[in-house]
Amino acid sequence: MSPWTSLVTVLALIVYFVVTINVGRARFKYKISPPQTVGNPDFERVLRVQQNTLEQLILFLPALWLFSIYISPIWASALGTAWVIGRITYAWGYYQAAEKRGIGFAISSLSSMGLILGSLIGIILDLVKLPGI
Question: 92-129: b or e for each residue (b if 16 or more CB lie within 10 Å)?
């Protein structure tokens, strides 16, 4: 187990926890009662940040750990840190206006793609080294 990869995992979960709390705060601020999810564009942007972050976590966390195992925990942590920074930038921009989410989305998406592709390469290289194949 890598403490660096573990730290990045916890940071990613903290980011998700914060954006989830922000949904509750926005519900109160914009008077959007559950289960309602529409009615105020400012609330809808806060909700989309939370939903998109959840959607991205599904790709990010397994890719982070696979990259850490098959390539390098340090490089996984570096790419993972970029992902966390990207998600914070995404949220901050999207909270202001939908048009301002692009840079954060690009940073986190590129980080995820690097982790996924790196993991795939590492796994294939490991399979090639197996005796009897």
Answer: ebbbeeeeebeebbebbbebbebbbebbeebeeeeeee
> pLDDT tens-digit profile of 115-130?
999 999 999 999 998 7
Q: Residue 1 has what pLDDT?
A: 83
- Residue (of 104, 98, 87, 93) closest to 53 by Cα position: 87
Q: Is the whole model's pTM more than 0.85, yes or no?
A: yes
Alpha-carbon distance 6 to 29, whole Å? 34
The Cα-based distances of 12 to 21, 58, 62, 94 in angstroms read 14, 11, 12, 18
User: For the chain, which domains are there?
Assistant: 3-129 (1.20.120.550)
Rounded to the nearest 5 degrees, what angle is found at the Cα of 15, between the Cα atoms of 103 and 33?
Answer: 100
Can you list the alpha helix ranges (DSSP code H) found in 1-133? 3-30, 41-70, 73-96, 102-129
